[in-house]
Amino acid sequence: MKRLLATSALGLLLSACQVVGPDYSLPDTAAVNRKDLQGPMAGEGDNVVSAPVPADWWKLYKDPRLDELVRQAMASNTDLRVAAANLQRARYQSQQAESAGGWSAGAKAEAQRLQESGEAFLLADKVPVDNIGSVGISTSYQFDLFGTLQRGIESAQANADAAQAAADIARITLVADVVRSYTRVCAANEELAIAHESLDLQGQSTRLTQRLRDAGRGDETQVTRSQTQYKSLRADMPRYEAARQAGLFRLSMLLAKPLDQLPAGTAHCAELPHIAQLLPVGDGAALLKRRPDVRQAERQLAAATARIGVATGALYPDIAIGASVGTVGLLDDLGTPATNRWGFGPMISWTVPTNGARARIHEAEAATQGALAHFDGVVLNAIRETQTGLAQYTAMLQRRDALAEAGESAREAAGQTHRFFQAGRASFLADLQATRTYTDVRAQLAAANTQVAMSQIDLFLALGGGWESARTQGTQAPAKP
Hints:
Elements: H1 2-15, E1 48-49, H2 64-76, H3 78-99, E2 102-114, E3 130-143, H4 148-214, H5 220-255, E4 279-280, H6 284-290, H7 292-313, E5 318-330, E6 340-349, H8 357-422, H9 428-463
Parallel strand pairs: 1-4
Antiparallel strand pairs: 2-3, 3-5, 5-6
Helix pairs in contact: 2-4, 3-4, 4-5, 4-7, 4-9, 7-8, 8-9
């Protein structure tokens, strides 16, 4: 008994002192620690400002209908349901890892009509058939002598954190998709209205050309060219309607609702969502802490590091201490002193590491190096996406501003030509041509405004905001890289 107690005490002492595998920490050489990635974002100027990115960035549009679309999507989107299920599964896996080792208990009871082998009891005669029963209770405590179970818990918890980050990625992607689809509906309606104006003007031009031909002041070639232009413009009309319907179908899918249950007025939106302030973009350090894909990659690295310890623990024996009590014998005699049994003592299980255990350790180490490289790649890609988004947004703004200037010139030219026509100094055809040119520039400007709006959405998606206020209650705070 003294030796048994000494063995138990030694196991408890060792379990508190030794943990296999490396402790997790980010290497100093990791890309996330690079100073050149921490400062202000490249491309800042008059279009953006280094202010914190708001959690609900879509509310900068000040569009109640858009806010409602996002709210409904957050409540019913199927991708979010999948992400929530994956997160719940990861948390249960973490609970399972935490429950491994330590105390365990079991109970067993059975009764059977049994013919035992006589020779098994060194008897020459046949043992009589009888009713045999057994009842037993056992308990044991497994020592985490080398920290194998602790590393398993660390790995499972890191995987749960990574699943939380994946759910956050799903949220920000969903919000961007909703805003983008709504913008497409509004843009299609706006461009469709301008296309109808162009078609009407071209129809007037065609009719005028036909009258001039009939009056002997024109030829059939001019009429044919005008009719061709009219038919070309008319052929474009279904494209805008299809873009509008595609946006509505996309919203229907994202919200998991039929078209007739979308918020009122969604299908008839004819004005692009607009942000009337400089876009807040923060800096590189805040970006890397905010983006959930960076957090996910960092947690995956932590899980891979912990799995080295799990693989290393397979080299060492499992040690537990257990006790059992029960009764085995004839059913009529169960519970009598002759049938009672009990036991108490240490249990050691050790598989000699000759079956690839060391290779599994090296495999885990290689996986950790791969996870570190992936983490570095995610960090660098986060900076690239944001810088690219800033550059494209700036370029789209410059193009939009140039087209706005061209539109202003076209408007003035159309006004001057119309005044000349009223004064008899210009033909009606010249007046129509100037008006059609102005309408064409308006169509180009509408398309440019759409590109600016899409660039804004892409930039906000690259900035990684939008998941903070959408967290479900009870979600644990994510680990920071």
